[in-house]
């Protein structure tokens, strides 16, 4: 199928579709940095599956592939002191916030040098040094703590912002609504980002909600709410910029639904038997990295050579992280089995 025909078909079925455009204030260097971040996310995720199959990576892992524009377009604008709360699909969020991919890979390998000393795996990575409040295997669970984090910033009088991510499935957790209500009532500096990839494991999201326009939930709480094309990093960047400015100015929360499409299985080996994956064929034409690259070339923002070099750099970084985790890190010793159960105090063995 020709590219343009795909796009015409997509426009009919993907109601969040927007054309690419250059938002005011977004310079070339920032664009190249975001492009690079997306490639690191992509190469990291692509590398993990074969490692998982080879039994080098342990525990579940959920790829963020094709959702990279969401985390990147938003988190790239945060400062180090700002916070993010993440999901079970959180590698990309941490990469965008400046996390250490060597420590991430070591954690996935179950090694002592990993973020959680190899005890937590993919879904439990936290890095307070870059404001990453934590990933969570419990869907929607990051939202209430994120409102707590925003409350802390408000009490301390800083201009720090907290951004919290959750899926279309996670959006249905009761605590998400309670948190939105409190944040709106107290005008807290928090941004709710719903990554609507239209699936919650094997459930089409429209089967479990009466209102498929998820951004409208924010409106119900009096929160300015927007829908973005989850494949259009420029629209996401522009929407997030305004939301971050509002939060820093003490004007309260924003809700952003980034509508996308889950183009792979829910986790590493889910073959998506419950859905027709051919639906995704068209969406690959607008996957965010390809789309941003094409746009930057069309608009003479970057050359193909520059973009290729950025991709190669990302491959090298990820390869180095695998080499580190595989050959330089250590298995936790058996006598450390009970370590890190409590932050301090007596450990009951
Ligand atoms: C509270 C809770 N209920 C159920 C699950 C099982 N579960 C794990 S991932 C998932 C789907 C989440 O879907 P969504 O929030 O849309 O995120 P996505 O995986 O699509 O990124 C579910 C139901 C869980 N981990 N936590
Ligand atoms: Mg989902």
UniProtKB/TrEMBL annotation:
In alphabetical order, the GO MF annotations are: pyruvate dehydrogenase (acetyl-transferring) activity
Which keywords annotate this record?
A: Oxidoreductase, Pyruvate, Thiamine pyrophosphate
Q: Per the UniProt entry, what are the Gene Ontology biological process annotations, in alphabetical order?
A: pyruvate decarboxylation to acetyl-CoA
Q: E.C. number, please?
A: 1.2.4.1
Where in this chain does the record put each Dehydrogenase E1 component domain? 37-328
Pfam entry (one): E1_dh
The protein's superkingdom reads Bacteria
Named cofactor requirement(s) = thiamine diphosphate
Name-wise, this protein is Pyruvate dehydrogenase E1 component, alpha subunit PdhA1
- The protein's organism comes out as Acetobacterium woodii (strain ATCC 29683 / DSM 1030 / JCM 2381 / KCTC 1655 / WB1)
* Recorded name of the encoding gene: pdhA1
